[in-house]
Amino acid sequence: MSNGLNGCGEVVDLPISNTHHMAVLQAQDSSHTISLNKLARCGDLYGASAPMQQLFQMIGKVAPTSANVLIAGESGTGKELVAQAIHQLSREQEQPFVALNCSAVSPQLIEAELFGHERGSFTGAVRMQKGCFERADGGTLFLDEVTEMSLDMQVKLLRVLETSRFCRIGAEEETEVKVRVIAATNRDPVEAMKSGILRSDLFYRLSVFPLDLPPLRERGEDIRLLAGLFLDQLNEEDGRNRVFSKASWRLLNEYNWPGNVRELKNVVHRAYIMADHELDLLPAVNPNRSMVSEQIGDCVTVQLGSKLADAEQRLIYATLGHCGGNKTLTAEVLGVSLKTLYNRLNEYQAKLFLGDVIPHARPYGTQSRNQ
Ligand SMILES: Nc1ncnc2c1ncn2[C@@H]1O[C@H](COP(=O)(O)OP(=O)(O)OP(=O)(O)O)[C@@H](O)[C@H]1O
């Protein structure tokens, strides 16, 4: 599957001892032995499942071109890693890779972030500042959450994509750059376009080469392989030999992973910190079980004494699972806007990073996933 460009999609040696890794995986459950020989790598992305192999091939094809790429996928599925892999495999790999999360910058500041400003162009502009386009000149600009940009800014972005020229705020002369733009969104881009959040001209300009990242729950054996990989990386750092408990091994494939690979990585890390030898993932997924209700069939019951925010999070995760991960449908069922749903999911992920309590959710209720 090599494409001659550092072999994206090739089966590679992990940055860990394979023998050690196999030992860890085999120790879990002899009926669930996974051969790491199947694990492929593309940049810093790992995967063995069919959709990931396909994705690696697509990355290998588009990387050496100058095409703009639009990456769509749920939060935590690895969109930034895909953008980095494309850059690393491009002819411009020695040039800068600059990333900007468009939802993290206020609408007032995003223009200055993108295009820079001249000295004295607004209060506080004490010196000239280059923007992301200039800093990425010759290389790649990764625009994460591009659909969160205002429609006015989308017009300005489109113009740069078409002319390669822009004006720093307060400048009289235009600046010319050669930048490849890779954009990403947590939303379904076609839905975003239909609902007027994403301008159609920008959509068509960006999606010369669209890439869809599958949610982790649709990647079958990748869940255990990635969990094993993350555990091995932690063991390697500490010189330890911790393993998953049998219940954890099962949970890996039963849980729905709404926060995708990011959540898996955090959960393994959290369980690793708590473990003496065997990792117990259940409390790591659900660190405060006493505050958490049971989910039975299609019902979510909430224990009296729960915080309203915890109950809301639980209902959102359960509905998301019930809707098969379809966020538009989930928002409809819950009677909230898609934006509100995304805001909540982003908040939960931020909490996850800060180590806050995550109410246990098995969004698929009684459904369990088979490999
Ligand atoms: N296939 C993979 N192999 C190894 N690590 C992965 C993989 N996919 C994601 N990760 C890890 O998961 C975390 C989230 O990845 P990343 O930031 O690329 O996701 P994202 O889709 O851009 O998220 P967001 O939409 O929230 O910005 C990172 O720590 C990344 O290293």
TrEMBL record:
The organism's place on the tree of life at top rank: Bacteria
Hydrolase among keywords: no
Classification via Gene3D superfamilies: 1.10.8.60, Homeodomain-like (1.10.10.60), P-loop containing nucleotide triphosphate hydrolases (3.40.50.300)
Keywords: ATP-binding, DNA-binding, Nucleotide-binding, Transcription, Transcription regulation
Pfam families: AAA_lid_14, HTH_8, Sigma54_activat
Domain Sigma-54 factor interaction: 45-273
Protein name per the record: Sigma-54 interaction domain-containing protein
